[in-house]
Amino acid sequence: MASPYVTKLIKDTGKSASEVEKYWNQAKKIASETFGKSENDFGKAEYEFAYGTVMNMFGKKESILNPEVFLSSEKSAKEFIEEVISADFNIGDENPVINNHKDDEEETKNEDK
């Protein structure tokens, strides 16, 4: 029977069980190296890291927008943001055009009357 994390990954990614299992095993190795722990010593943080790693492998990074991800990471805001930036993650346009002059335009229209 698949672990709860694998079951959730299958649901969240829409990938087959065999494909998810393959990436799950890779992610657990990465988590083991990152945390310096064997899988036998994994806790919630290590398994959630592995879950996030698989999501990233499948190109599904939207979980980073969930505040619970930050809160459960036990990282400072600076560390978490640096991790997000290093993951090459962005939201929408990097340089959005913002029109802050609408009020100025309406004042000009009213003055012209």
SSE order in H/E notation? HHHHHH
Portion in beta strands: under 5%
Q: Residue-averaged pLDDT, rounded?
A: 76
Number of strands: 0
- Name the quaternary structure: single chain
Tally of individual helices: 6
Biggest beta sheet attributes: none
Describe the structure.
With 113 residues, this protein is mostly helical. The protein is 63% helix and 0% strand. It contains 6 helices and no strands. Helix 1 packs parallel to helix 3 and helix 2 packs across helix 3. It starts with a helix and ends with a helix. The chain has one domain. It is globular and about 35 Å long.
Which structural traits does this protein have?
mainly alpha, 63% helix, 113 residues, single chain
Offer a quick outline of the entry.
The protein is mainly alpha-helical. The chain has one domain. The radius of gyration is 21 Å and the shape is globular.
Topology (elements, then pairings):
Blueprint lengths: L3 H10 L3 H19 L8 H14 L9 H7 L3 H10 L15 H11 L1
Helix pairs in contact: 1-2, 1-3, 2-3
